[in-house]
Design brief:
Elements (H helix, E strand, L loop, with lengths): L2 E5 L4 H12 L3 E6 L18 E5 L12 E4 L6 H6 L1 H22 L2 E7 L26 H21 L3 E6 L2 E2 L10 H10 L4 E4 L5 E3 L1 E2 H13 L7 E3 L4 E3 H12 L5 E4 L14 H7 L7 H15 L6
Parallel strand pairs: 1-2, 1-4, 2-3, 4-5, 5-6, 6-11, 7-10, 8-13
Antiparallel strand pairs: 9-12
Helix pairs in contact: 1-6, 3-4, 5-7, 5-9, 7-9
The structure holds nicotinamide-adenine-dinucleotide and uridine-5'-diphosphate.
The site of nicotinamide-adenine-dinucleotide has 29 residues, from helix 1, strand 2, helix 3 and strand 5.
Length: about 325
């Protein structure tokens, strides 16, 4: 049995990862400051003796003896990470240094949940790992984009300088149950708006694209990457099926049978125009590719939000 530390373990992805790790008979230590995560996401494990919850902010050092670190702590929604931009940078820089220090001391293998945002408003399509990106260093998204880029740099420098055993994964837009209702990311926003019969807010003309990965596929990829030998990454994980934001809105309206209308709002600054992962590396190194198509994943996510929005739900 491995003892595994999951930073951001009460968040959307972190909580699904905790489920999967406990299922695989690991001991799990979950660290979270509950900035964008919720206790509700991990409530099911609080009585499990192999699960430990720590309310802790990773910008402060943390000490534990562990074999693996999945480093996910960082708000992922643009609304959340821009709410306190300086804190987002601290989480990515000081938090990552603290977790690398822990990995160095314990000899644990550490995996960083980086992001497709390191490619910025990409000029290369689809995005492959060798592309260095097109990132604005002084914009509203920079706290997150540059934060993730320096987190990757720190991972590589601890690997080269201190031989820390690292893995870097660049996650592309992932969705599913347990996204917060107020999360602000596009899939949860559109589903909640459709179910509440409110207007669907498409930013800009809706021709910008994203590729949406269902959470179970992503978690399977993270776990495989952690266990693969002799490969640090960076490696893209995501679903290469690309859709415009308008197509996503229309599909959600169809699946929810909602009478909501699509309205347009201003496009946020530096919003990437096209995003789609090249997943050749993940296919080759991990024998991994996503299995869940958008329609199926959306149906599951819609069912979750229907339940969450039902009257009397805490
Ligand atoms: P999330 O906001 O639901 O989860 C992040 C978790 O980290 C939350 O529980 C939050 O409370 C916690 N956290 C934030 N700052 C912290 C700090 N200083 N100390 C301790 N805990 C802290 O987001 P998510 O979608 O689950 O994303 C998880 C990770 O994956 C993030 O690092 C994110 O950047 C990365 N990622 C996610 C996506 C995606 O589409 N979901 C895409 C790219 C990258
Ligand atoms: N978006 C939108 N309406 C919303 C939320 C987001 O049109 O209510 C758009 C956003 O401008 C972006 C895309 O959907 O082009 C994905 O946004 P999200 O915040 O989910 O993640 P991003 O990929 O931008 O980090």
């Amino acid at each position: 049995m491995n003892r595994v530390l999951v930073t951001g373990g009460a968040g959307f992805l972190g909580s699904h990862l905790c489920d999967a790790l406990l299922e695989r008979k690991n001991e799990v230590i979950c660290l979270d400051n509950f900035f964008s995560g919720r206790k509700k996401n991990i409530l099911q494990h609080l009585d499990n003796p192999y699960f430990e919850l720590n309310r802790h902010d990773i910008i402060h050092p943390f000490f534990a003896e562990v074999d693996r670190v999945f480093h996910l702590a960082c708000p992922a929604s643009p609304i959340h990470y821009q709410h306190n931009a300086i804190k987002t940078v601290k989480t990515n820089v000081m938090g990552t240094i603290n977790m690398l220090g822990l990995a160095k001391r314990t000899g644990a293998r550490i995996l960083l949940a980086s992001s497709s945002e390191v490619y910025g408003d990409a000029e290369v399509h689809p995005q492959e790992e060798k592309y260095w990106g097109n990132v604005n260093p002084v914009g509203l998204r920079s706290c997150y984009d540059e934060g993730k880029r320096v987190a990757e740099t720190l991972m590589m420098d601890y690997y080269r300088q201190n031989q820390v055993d690292i893995r870097i994964v660049r996650i592309f837009n992932t969705y599913g149950p347990r996204m917060a209702i107020q999360d602000g990311r596009v899939v949860s926003n559109f589903i909640v708006q459709a179910l509440k019969e409110e207007d669907i807010t498409v930013y800009g003309d809706g021709t910008q694209t994203r590729s949406f990965c269902y959470v179970s596929d992503l978690i399977a990829g993270l776990i495989r990457m952690m266990e693969v030998e002799d490969f640090t990454g960076p490696m893209n994980l995501g679903n290469p099926e690309e859709f415009t934001i308008l197509e996503l809105a229309e599909e959600i309206l169809r699946l929810t049978k909602s009478p909501s209308k699509i309205i347009h709002k201003p496009l946020p600054s530096d919003d990437p125009v096209r995003r789609c992962p090249d997943i050749s590396t993940a296919k080759q190194k991990l024998n991994w590719k996503p299995k869940v198509h958008l329609k199926e994943g959306l149906q599951k996510t819609i069912a979750y939000f229907r339940e969450e929005l039902s009257p009397g739900k805490p």
